[in-house]
Amino acid sequence: MDMIDSQNALLKKDHETFREVGFNCWHALERIKDCNNTNVDMQVLSTIPVLFSYWAKDIECLELSQFINDHISYTIQENPERFLGLGTIPMQNTDMAIQEMNRCINELKLSGIQIGSNVNGENLSEEKFMPVFKHAEEISCSIFVHPWEMMGAADMGKYWLPWLVGMPAEMSRAICSLIMSGVLEKYPKLKIAFAHGGGSFPFTLGRIDHGFNVRSDLCAIDNQTLPSDYIGKFYIDSLVHDQQTLQFLINQMGYEKIALGSDYPFPLGEAEPGKLIESLDIADKMKQRMLAGTALEWLGLSEDDFIH
User: Fold this and answer.
1) What mean pLDDT, rounded, does the chain reach?
2) Which domain holds residue 69?
3) Most buried residue, 61, 73, 97, 114, by CB count within 10 Å?
């Protein structure tokens, strides 16, 4: 990262500019100011996915993960009534990933971890990743899956298509991989959530089920349970930017499994987190569940944990 001035910096990837970011990316008081201006009481911190760095040498990725996680933990300790946090782990090395997961939960007291939708192009269904999910279930570590390194990005760079088309596809890729590989069957207590409304998965579920039925020889080779049977067994966020789309998600996935998502502080985020949920013509209890209750459940928390 190269500083532009005291309030802006350039994120670089392979020595080329990736994104310009403001200091609300790293300055806690600026984040709190933004939260106050948009009526956000508590924010769950996580790293920007480009910093997953799964491509790096194993030990270097572990050291970077430790640095990021220490910073998130420090920010929470300084502002315990405003922030919770998710750590990052070096997924390319299973032993190191589990080691850092343990440190995140047991030492840093973070609420869970965030991982990418693929690891250096490999689906999350690969056998090498099974110990990570098994261990997360054993220690009740919540997992948030976020799209990154979108498939086909090099072929559709124009018009910001990797973010508009690739990200939704990446989320469906991750969900289908975990369902069809049997991860959600083997580890039914796994607390896992997917970003951006589950991407294209909820909207193509009919096609996915149909394909599973008519080409079971290709789709049902590792798990014979129909994909739609897993609705209600994982969480998604609400970040879909459209009333009708969010209403469809409620009908398809169940409001109890939808948590407020903001993507703060980036352009594809919701400028006023929760405004879309509040705009729906639904019962207040449903709104409150999506605004706070679902996230608390996924993280293994309750409102009583915040009463002092």
Assistant:
1) 94
2) 2-302
3) 97
Structure tokens at 263: 């993507």
Tokens at 82, concatenated: 């405003």
Report the pLDDT value the prediction gives residue 1, as an integer from 0 to 100: 61
With respect to residue 307, please indicate whether it lies within any of the assigned structural domains. Answer: no
Q: Are 134 and 96 in contact (CB under 8 A)?
A: no
Q: Which two tokens stand for residue 158?
A: 């124009």
8 Å CB contact between 9 and 21 = yes
Tokens of 236: 């998604």
Is residue 271 in a domain? Answer: yes
Residue 117 DSSP one-character state: S
Structural element, H or E, at residue 12: strand 8-13
- Report the C-alpha gap between 268 and 259 in whole angstroms: 17
Give pLDDT, residue 307.
Answer: 59
Count of domains observed in the chain: 1
Question: Any idea which residue has 């192009």 for tokens?
Answer: 121
Name the percent of the chain lying above pLDDT 90: 88
Closest-CA residue to 254 (of 219, 222, 301, 289): 289
As a whole number of angstroms, the distance between CA 77 and CA 71 comes to: 10
pLDDT digits (tens, 9 = 90+) for 235-265: 999 999 999 999 999 999 999 999 999 999 9
* Residues counted in the chain: 308
CATH code for position 196: 3.20.20.140
Assess if residue 44 is contained within a domain: yes
CB atoms within 10 A of CB 27: 14
Say if 308 falls within a structural domain: no
For residue range 190-244, what is the model confidence (pLDDT) as tens digits? 999 999 999 999 999 999 999 999 999 999 999 999 999 999 999 999 999 999 9
CA-nearest of 43, 115, 93, 96 to 273 is: 43
The first and second tokens of residue 133, run together, are 């999910």
Residue type, 185: E
Helix 130-138 with 94-102: angle, nearest 10 deg: 20
CA separation for the pair 306, 308 (Å, rounded): 6
pTM tops 0.85: yes
